[in-house]
Write a structure and sequence with these properties.
This protein has helices at about 50-65, 70-75, 75-90, 95-105, 110-130, 170-180, 195-210, 220-230, 245-255, 280-290, 310-325, 345-360, 390-395, 410-420, 435-445, 475-480; strands at about 20, 25, 30-35, 40-50, 145-155, 160, 185-190, 215, 235-240, 260-265, 270-275, 300-305, 360-365, 370, 375, 380-385, 400-405, 425-430, 450, 470, 485-490. By secondary structure, it is an alpha/beta fold. The protein has two domains: about 10-265 and about 470-490, 3-Layer(aba) Sandwich (Aldehyde Dehydrogenase, Chain A, domain 1), CATH 3.40.605; about 270-460, Aldehyde Dehydrogenase, Chain A, domain 2. Helix 3 packs antiparallel against helix 5 (about 110-130). The chain is globular and about 70 Å long. It binds NADP nicotinamide-adenine-dinucleotide phosphate and magnesium ion.
Length: about 500
């Protein structure tokens, strides 16, 4: 699979650096790491491996920007305008950002342009509007005498943002946008595998006029830069998206100064297809729900529960999609599914497929890695899976669907089967029956429930997980208020 030749973006023609206090600087240790194109295995660039010393500089810069200087005095409407300018800059440089995202993640270029970059720009616009709408409120207190009592919403302070590699630009922006709308300053630690679009975003942030220190970007390893950021006493809050295991580790590290912690973690989301559903749409959505972004989506519908009477048709339909999808480097014009992010991730996913087979599951589509330089895997459908199997219990984070059937289960039993997981991020229900839909909606323990739809992400809708899928919500009013502290004020007027 050859990648067509494309002119390299300017970012890749220079050494990659860190953004600290408005300056592009090398890391203190001088250590560097290759950034790889997962479609080819080729080295794209070398990133600076920031560590504790760089994180400390970045946190201090963020603190100065928070407490003194233009950002601290900036009116909310000016923050709105800056965020809107940044959104426009993302659109203007959309092709270049999409190319960087495709080179670094392997995802199809048109997906990167429409979804990743488009999503990031819209996220900035949505949150820009909140800067002028974050209000406290007066309270009718019953204290003796005459009082004026109200709440104030203030920025939580310096926020550490840690993001994964599956949707690098959109994830970074989904945290930066509400944090800045709320008046916070930030230190962003991108995933070590995917620093490119975060760094280009940093250049645009500087170019549109955010004051120095408001956004700092320190690339590096999770166990070094990430860990230092989480443990730093000068950080007031950490917002993390990533695996449940690292999320748990972060809680311990954040305990030192009891910083606030928001966690968007993994999932093992169920999809229920009832016999009365519009099966063509359900099949199409079930396939997209697990194969999009090569299954590297926290809310991927990875457990399919299908009624026995329609199971053959549904499984055959999803398996046919799996076989038909064009798996190719993201720069190939008709690519639909790119590689997984790394050789290690490919090994991990293939080990899950092997374990599923060993435990008695049957592979009806895919099931093999694709030979060649890039890290490609066939979209895979496994049937005869059972609740105790590793492939059903653990998040694979790859293009692997596990199918189970249901028969005369009551809705209560069926929901219990769906809820039989440590996770609780998302779920979808396919039926034309209102009663079935509403009964299932109420019973499912998941932060996001979709009826006759797969993903349906919208910035107005809070997104987050029940159980071990996380703490807190992103998006909506809740998402921006998460970057504030609430102060109660009572004034004695007697
Ligand atoms: P990960 O290993 O947990 O890493 C996420 C981020 O945390 C990376 O920037 C990572 O740096 C950093 N990190 C690793 N160890 C750390 C530590 N000890 N202290 C501080 N930071 C640390 O997850 P991933 O493998 O990149 O991403 C896949 C996971 O993300 C999946 O489980 C998926 O479900 C989850 N995810 C959740 C959502 C959601 O919204 N709920 C969205 C997308 C992905 P390195 O890159 O250097 O390891
Ligand atoms: Mg990792």
């Amino acid at each position: 699979m050859n990648t067509p030749h494309t002119a390299m973006p300017p970012l890749l023609q220079q050494p990659l650096r860190l953004l600290i206090d408005g300056q592009w600087v090398g890391c203190a240790s001088g250590a560097r790491m290759d950034v790889i194109n997962p479609s080819t295995g080729e080295v794209l660039a070398q990133e600076a491996l920031g560590g504790a010393a760089d994180i400390h500089q970045a946190v201090q810069a963020a603190r100065r920007a928070l407490e003194a200087g233009p950002w601290a005095r900036m009116r909310p409407a000016e923050r709105t305008r800056l965020l809107l300018k940044l959104a426009d800059a993302l659109d203007q440089h959309g092709d270049e950002l999409a190319l960087l995202e495709t080179l670094n993640t392997g995802k199809p270029l048109k997906v990167a342009r429409l979804f990743d970059v488009g999503h990031a720009a819209e996220c900035l616009r949505y949150n820009a509007g909140w800067a002028t709408k974050l209000n406290g409120e007066t309270r009718a207190v019953s204290l003796h005498g005459d009082w004026h009592a109200y709440t104030l919403r203030e920025p939580v302070g310096v926020v550490g943002l840690i993001v994964p590699w599956n949707v690098p630009l959109a994830m970074a922006v989904s945290k930066i946008a509400p944090a800045l709308a709320a008046g916070c300053t930030v230190v962003l630690k991108p995933a070590e595998l995917t620093p490119l679009t975060a760094l280009r975003l940093g250049e645009l942030i500087v170019a549109v006029g955010f004051p120095p220190g408001v956004v700092n970007i320190v690339t590096g390893l999770g166990t070094e830069a990430g860990q230092a950021l989480v443990a730093h006493p000068g950080v007031d809050k950490v917002s993390f998206t990533g695996s449940t295991a690292v999320g748990k580790a972060i809680l311990g590290s954040a305990a030192g100064n009891l910083k606030r912690v928001a966690l968007e973690l993994g999932g093992k989301s169920p999809v229920f297809i009832f016999p009365d559903a519009d099966l063509d749409r359900a099949i199409d959505a079930a396939a997209r729900g697990i194969f999009s972004n090569t299954g590297q989506v926290c809310a991927a519908g990875s457990r399919l529960f299908v009624h026995r009477s329609v199971a053959e048709r549904v499984v055959e339909g999803v398996a046919r999609r799996a076989r038909q999808l064009r798996v190719a480097p993201g720069l190939v014009a008709d690519a639909e599914i790119g590689p997984v992010i790394s050789a290690r991730q490919r090994e991990r996913v293939m080990a899950y497929v092997a374990s599923g087979r060993a435990e008695g599951a049957e592979v009806v589509a895919g099931g093999e890695a694709i030979d060649g330089a890039g890290y490609f895997i066939q979209p895979t459908v496994m049937v005869n899976t059972a609740p105790a199997m590793k492939v059903v219990r653990e998040e694979i984070f790859g293009p692997v669907l596990c199918v189970q059937q249901f028969d005369d289960d009551s809705l209560e039993q069926l929901a219990a089967r769906g809820n039989d997981t440590d996770f609780g991020l998302s779920s979808s229900i396919w039926t034309r029956d209102l009663r079935t839909a509403h009964q299932m909606v109420r019973r499912l323990k998941a932060g996001n429930v979709r009826v006759n739809a797969a993903a349906a992400l919208d910035f107005a809708m809070p997104f987050g997980g029940y159980k071990q899928s996380g703490w807190g919500r992103e998006n909506g009013r809740e998402g921006v208020e998460a970057y504030t502290e609430l102060k109660s004020v009572a004034i004695d007027l007697n």
